[in-house]
């Protein structure tokens, strides 16, 4: 049985981005309830050399849209990284979900054998097929940033758990 590129990507991105959206709602409510400045959470990081929450969410969304675009053979949409609050992050997630839903399933399936190039210059990486790109590069990066966003919020006292991260499918 062959791997469905669509099934291994779009539903996974939808599930975790949906969970991330719900977690951000809980974080915003937590900040309001505890009288915490939202920036304290949005700019929080696990360690000084790591991205803050805002950037973790942006990068997770970027991996979702970039992966689906590359697998689908369409141009990767560019998002300005201007989000400065929870509403902005929610809008970015919503925009990302709308984009990944717009790419035809057949085009994504065709991406299994499509050569994919990411980055530029010294950071350029080439993959001899979309399946390798998805399974060994894109999904691990996506999960890393989504998990780190969760971890930042959990570390800062937002009452979330594994069920919040996993969400529903």
What's the name of the CATH homologous superfamily?
dinb family like domain
Poorly predicted parts = none
Order of helices and strands: HHHHHEEHH
Indicate how many domains the architecture comprises.
Answer: 1
Largest sheet geometry: 2 strands, antiparallel
- For the terminal residues, how far apart are their CA atoms? 22 Å
Radius of gyration: 16 Å
CATH first level: Mainly Alpha
Biggest sheet: strand arrangement = 1-2
Share of residues in helices: 55-70%
How would you describe what is shown here?
The protein is mainly alpha-helical and 169 residues long. It has one domain: dinb family like domain (Four Helix Bundle (Hemerythrin (Met), subunit A)). It has seven helices and two strands; from the N terminus they run αααααββαα. A two-stranded antiparallel sheet has the order 1-2. α3 (53-72) runs antiparallel to α6 (130-155). The chain is elongated. The two termini are 22 Å apart.
Give a nutshell description of this structure.
The protein is mainly alpha-helical and 169 residues long.
């Amino acid at each position: 049985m062959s791997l469905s590129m669509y099934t291994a990507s779009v539903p996974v991105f939808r599930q975790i981005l949906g969970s991330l959206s719900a977690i951000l709602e809980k974080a915003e409510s937590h900040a309001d309830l505890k009288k915490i400045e939202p920036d304290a959470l949005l700019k929080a990081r696990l360690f000084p050399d790591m991205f803050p929450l805002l950037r973790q969410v942006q990068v997770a969304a970027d991996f979702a849209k970039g992966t689906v675009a590359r697998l689908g053979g369409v141009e990767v949409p560019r998002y300005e990284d201007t989000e400065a609050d929870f509403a902005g992050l929610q809008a970015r997630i919503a925009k990302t979900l709308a984009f990944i839903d717009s790419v035809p399933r057949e085009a994504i399936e065709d991406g299994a054998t499509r050569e994919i190039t990411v980055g530029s210059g010294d950071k350029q990486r080439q993959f001899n097929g979309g399946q390798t790109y998805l399974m060994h590069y894109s999904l691990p990066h996506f999960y890393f940033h989504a998990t780190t966003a969760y971890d930042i919020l959990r570390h800062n006292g937002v009452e979330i758990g594994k069920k919040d991260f996993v969400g529903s499918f």
